[in-house]
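Try this one yourself first.
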């Protein structure tokens, strides 16, 4: 199983110069997901939620204060992509529209030989869709605001022996380490770095090593929260 942070992939893709409409963008996004998951039987893509009243939303507003935002409602695929992508992608309403559009496109375009599951991006907060009707996805109908914790939910749900999470975030790294015992996989890897220089971090090895030193390994999340050391590119530069 491969688990992908959908919004992180959106930020990585940026605005492809040869894409002019949201249909073309969705096609590029889906192609990228399927290319990343070509060696996997199952691909899970999770998205953030954009609640109006939450601590996370207050943080987002503070981060984007002073930036010029452009509202572009993604009502259908024929809507042209905005020229100024950064002004588009900083607005929560735009990101929510895009997540919904991409989630629907992923399921519609998934090949029959792959299982594609996506959650977090639909209008209903707990909605999850799978390209396969043979998998019970009831347990994935969560109300997580952030893709970070939704990723853990999908990892726990997977029955694969080999699991890879595509992320650059230290939050995700520590969440994976802390919750590895709850997963069914034998090996859990976090793929970070860049496309040219990928880094694969063995979460299962880190977990076992830390467990010898910290009997209650869940406490690492509390210590991490207190330090405030949240970084989205540390694994690119290390």
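Now uncover the answer:
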């Amino acid at each position: 199983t491969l688990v992908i942070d959908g919004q992180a992939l959106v930020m990585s893709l940026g605005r492809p110069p040869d894409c002019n409409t949201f249909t073309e963008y969705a096609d590029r996004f889906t192609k990228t997901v399927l290319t990343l998951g070509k060696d996997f039987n199952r691909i899970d893509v999770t998205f953030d939620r954009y609640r109006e009243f939450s601590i996370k939303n207050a943080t987002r507003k503070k981060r984007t204060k002073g930036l010029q935002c452009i509202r572009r409602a993604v009502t259908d695929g024929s809507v042209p992509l905005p020229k100024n992508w950064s002004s588009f992608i900083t607005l929560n309403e735009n990101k929510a529209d895009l997540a919904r559009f991409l989630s629907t496109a992923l399921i519609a375009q998934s090949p029959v030989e792959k299982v594609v599951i996506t959650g977090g991006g639909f209008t209903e907060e707990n909605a999850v869709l799978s390209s396969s009707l043979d998998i019970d996805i009831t347990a994935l109908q969560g109300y997580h605001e952030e893709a970070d914790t939704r990723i853990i939910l999908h990892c726990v749900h997977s029955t694969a022996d080999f699991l890879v999470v595509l992320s650059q975030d230290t939050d995700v790294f520590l969440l994976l380490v802390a919750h590895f015992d709850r997963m069914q996989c034998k090996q859990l890897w976090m793929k970070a770095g860049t496309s040219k220089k990928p880094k694969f971090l063995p979460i299962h090895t880190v977990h076992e090593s830390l467990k010898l030193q910290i009997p209650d390994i869940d406490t690492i999340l509390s210590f991490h929260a207190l330090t405030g050391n949240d970084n989205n590119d540390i694994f690119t530069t290390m």
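Discussion: The mean pLDDT is 89. The radius of gyration is 18 Å.
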